[in-house]
Design goal:
The complex is a heterodimer of chains A (265) and B (533). Chain A is an alpha+beta fold. Helix content of chain A is 40%, strand content 13%. Chain A has 3 domains: 38-115, Cytochrome c-like domain (Cytochrome Bc1 Complex, Chain D, domain 2), CATH 1.10.760; 127-178 and 237-257, Cytochrome c-like domain (Cytochrome Bc1 Complex, Chain D, domain 2); 181-231, Roll (SH3 type barrels), CATH 2.30.30.100. Chain B has a single domain, classed as 8 Propeller (Methanol Dehydrogenase, Chain A). Helices cover 5% and strands 37% of the residues of chain B. Chain B contains 2 helices and 37 strands. Classes of the chains: A alpha+beta (265), B mainly beta (533).
Chain lengths: 265, 533
């Protein structure tokens, strides 16, 4: 009898836990931002530019923090997820919480949503053609997508989450406008006179690490080098002349479609 | 036979625990330089020298340094702690606000105090902590939620816990406290949150506050005319780096931080006293004796939070009580410690914001250097030409050693209204420019002229302070993770070791089991080195 009561009690506890979990899921799914007027978006923009832009960029395009203009968020995409992440910060990341009232944070959510408004479905252009262009224009020689392609340029498997459409377009037209340190070009001549060139991977006061054009990794002591320089220009060609407007749109659409597979969105 | 065994056991036990029973008096802190086997205050002595009289490590034998022990902290936060060593025990903080006591000979833990932190503590630059203070059988620590605690030095038990300020309004304590007499001097952080800064003194025995010196005057007080309207209430001027103490004059010499909001000074037109200043306070009352403001109406976040280096020496023909100060704003200063009078000023790193300093030390600003909506490039950058990490002064070489940043910043101006507990900076600062990150260096200055004697160049900008020793060495660290020893006379590298983690703290030296030891935190670990046999 006692055993039966214990079993019933346990079952009741399990039921209660499952009910609460389901209710929590339902709350996450159903809670909607109550403050979405243009005035709320404007107020949210003001808060965003003061508190969020240092890491996420003035227009949410990303920087130290991820791009917020894509409408895809790694730590939950519901309104309530965004409210909680902004209010409490995200443990294990550099994202701090704000001490603002929920209403003020809802306004920030409204602004962030406005950044991707109309972009949810992506540009209405031919993504498949963009994928073809990616191959035919030789992008894969340097860039890797989902395990296929070269290793000299950035891996683009999740570039659609990380970078805005505007940023992708600018990178194709003018690659030298924003060259990250990881892609600066190292060239050196060692004591025997042998020259080497590659992309900077790491550097300290005494050594440099780079990947050469044959995708071989090198770690070299700077002492004794006959010549050593680091150029901040990009090896990527500009596609300003080699793609027409339509093709550029297609390629940007394809890149923007590259998002993480599975996991929290 | 049994009696002999018991006696031996008691003797052995006494040897093991004896260090924990030694009393650490204020007199010992005053004479710290005569006790080089310990490291009893943040800077090693009250004069802010970060100099060790230990001379076992020399330019000839330092290549034989070897690892003594490593202590791995239980943290993923940035470690900025400077350890203290008192009678065989090393005390240091583990961020966010924990304290650890270990055997200085082995690194084995005696105790660990874990501070349970509130869910939301917003500190501008990570939940860091720069260390503890010790007196008697007590260890004092400030916390990220703006409390000051006294812990039992033998067990880590909390003896008292006082609220310094309300963390929910942006206050926090990251500074290592400084014991002066029977008081614990505790600064405050929050210059990016619109706090009103202060420096406090607490009774070491009871935790009762003895005095508070507000670094921003209230209306009607001297200096209040430099704050329009209510701007003084949210004007910043924190005190987040440990200062120095001049016992002869009974003066606490401390630096103050930036005015708030950092990069938009529109609502605080005026000099904004006593932000970005050196302040000299009567140690018993906290009353201001004199001040010197390095950056009137700062709009670049160039805090005066470097450790004041106090030296008595000949200067321009007469013996004076001096302060040497290599400032975040890229100028090196010499001040008279009795009056605060400006004696010398000269750039020690690249700067593009001032034509120079006038006869009173006030900067002669160049045009078009203020932050702007589109951004203004200025040298030095947001983190300055140096920052909170300690300089070092050697009485042997009579040189001042400074970890230097050569960098420019993009200063943007924005609008921001104050709300308690949230950032109040008025900008979107660019701390590191992706295409021009700058570089670092260790520089030796002639402190009487500001002239550079030598430089040890670094690829990256260092966040580690310096230690000079009687063995004519300078120890420093880099963001790259290297701990290095340089010849103090010419800057030549003698030894270096990759510790595998960013070094963002200050080195110390102490003696253990007859050997000189160097200690410094890197990554999330405390490392110690000694000479190989």
């Amino acid at each position: 009898m006692v055993k039966q009561i214990r079993l019933l009690g346990f079952a009741a506890l399990v039921w209660a836990a499952l009910t609460l979990a389901a209710a929590a899921q339902a709350e996450i799914a159903t809670t909607r931002n109550p403050l979405t007027s243009p005035a709320d978006v404007a107020a949210g923009a003001k808060t965003f530019r003061s508190h969020c832009a240092p890491c996420h960029g003035l227009n949410g395009e990303g920087g130290r923090g991820p791009n917020l203009a894509s409408g895809v968020f790694s730590h939950g995409s519901s309104d309530l997820d965004l409210l909680n992440n902004i209010s409490d910060g995200i443990p294990g990341t550099e994202m701090p919480g704000l001490f603002y009232s929920p209403d003020r944070v809802w306004q920030v959510v409204a602004f962030i949503r406005s950044l991707s408004a109309g972009k949810g479905a992506g540009p209405k252009v031919d993504v498949a053609s963009g994928a073809e262009l990616f191959k035919s224009k030789g992008c894969q020689q340097c860039h890797r997508v989902n395990g296929a392609g070269g290793r000299l340029g950035p891996d683009l498997s999740e570039i659609g989450r990380i970078r805005s459409v505007e940023h992708l377009r600018a990178a194709l037209v003018d690659p030298n406008a924003d060259v990250r340190q990881r892609y600066w070009v190292v060239s050196l001549k060692d004591a025997s006179g042998k020259s080497q060139e590659g992309f900077l991977m790491n550097e300290d006061s005494y050594t440099v690490q780079f990947i050469d054009m044959g995708e071989r990794l090198h770690s070299v002591s700077k002492s004794g080098l006959k010549d050593y320089k680091v150029e901040k220009t990009s090896k990527m060609p500009s596609f300003k002349e080699s793609l027409n407007t339509s093709e550029l749109d297609q390629l940007v659409a394809y890149l923007s479609s590259l998002r993480p597979k599975g996991g929290a969105q | 036979m049994k009696r002999i065994w018991v006696a031996s056991a008691i003797a052995a036990l006494a040897w093991v625990v004896a260090p924990l029973h030694a009393q650490l008096t204020y007199e010992r802190l005053l004479k710290a330089e005569q006790d080089p086997g310990n490291w009893l205050t943040y800077s090693g002595n009250y004069r802010g020298w970060r100099y060790s009289p230990l001379s076992q490590m020399t330019r000839d034998n330092t290549r034989k340094l070897k690892l003594k022990w490593v202590y791995q902290m239980q943290t993923t936060h940035t470690v900025e702690t400077t350890p203290l060593v008192a009678d065989g025990v090393m005390y240091f903080t583990e961020p966010p606000s924990n304290v650890v006591a270990v055997d200085a000979a082995t690194g084995r833990q005696f105790w660990r105090y874990r501070r349970v932190m509130p869910k939301k503590v917003n500190v501008c630059c990570g939940q860091v902590n720069r260390g503890v203070a010790v007196l008697g059988d007590r260890v004092f620590v400030g916390t990220g939620d703006a409390h000051l605690l006294a812990l039992d030095a033998k067990t880590g038990a909390v003896l008292w816990d006082v609220e310094v300020a309300d963390y929910r309004t942006g206050y926090s304590v990251t500074v290592a406290p400084l014991v002066v007499k029977d008081m614990v001097i505790c600064g405050i952080s929050g210059g990016e949150y619109g706090i009103r800064g202060f420096l406090d003194a607490y009774d070491a025995a009871s935790g009762k506050r003895r005095w508070r010196h507000w670094t921003i005057p209230a209306p009607g007080e001297p200096g209040s005319e430099t704050w329009p309207g209510d701007s003084w209430k949210t004007g910043g001027a924190p005190t987040w780096v440990t200062g120095s103490f001049d016992p002869e004059q009974n003066l606490i010499i401390w630096g103050t931080g930036n005015p708030s909001p950092d990069w938009n000074g529109d609502n605080r037109k005026g000099d904004n006293l006593y932000s970005d200043s050196t302040i000299a306070l009567d140690a018993d009352t906290g009353k201001l004796k004199w001040y010197f403001q390095h950056v009137p109406h700062d709009v670049h976040d160039w805090d005066s939070v470097q450790v004041p280096v106090l030296v008595d020496d000949e200067f321009q023909g007469r013996r004076r009580k001096l302060i040497y100060w290599a400032h975040r704003n890229a100028f090196y200063y010499v001040l008279d410690r009795e009056t605060g009078q400006f004696l010398l000023g000269k750039p020690f790193a690249t700067q593009t914001w001032a034509k120079g300093l006038d006869e009173k030390g006030r900067p002669i600003r160049l045009p078009n250097i203020d932050p702007s909506p589109e951004g203004t490039y200025v040298w030095p950058g947001v983190q300055g030409a140096t920052n909170w990490f300690s300089p070092s002064y050697s009485p042997l070489t009579k040189l001042l050693y400074v970890a230097v940043w050569e960098n420019k910043g993009l200063y943007r101006k924005g609008e921001q209204e104050y709300s308690p507990g949230n950032r109040y900076i008025g900008s979107v600062p660019m701390i590191d420019l992706p295409d021009d990150p700058g570089h670092g260096a260790i520089r030796a200055l002639n402190p009487k002229t500001g002239d550079r004697l030598w430089e040890y160049k670094l690829q990256t900008k260092p966040w580690a302070g310096l230690l000079s020793t009687a063995g004519q060495l300078v120890f420093g660290g880099s963001d790259e993770g290297h701990l290095f020893a340089l010849d103090a006379t010419n800057g030549k590298e003698i030894w270096r070791q990759n510790l595998g983690g960013i070094i963002r703290t200050n080195p110390i030296s102490y003696q253990s089991q007859g050997k000189q030891v160097i200690a410094i935190a890197a990554g999330n670990s405390m490392f110690t080195f000694e000479l190989a046999d």
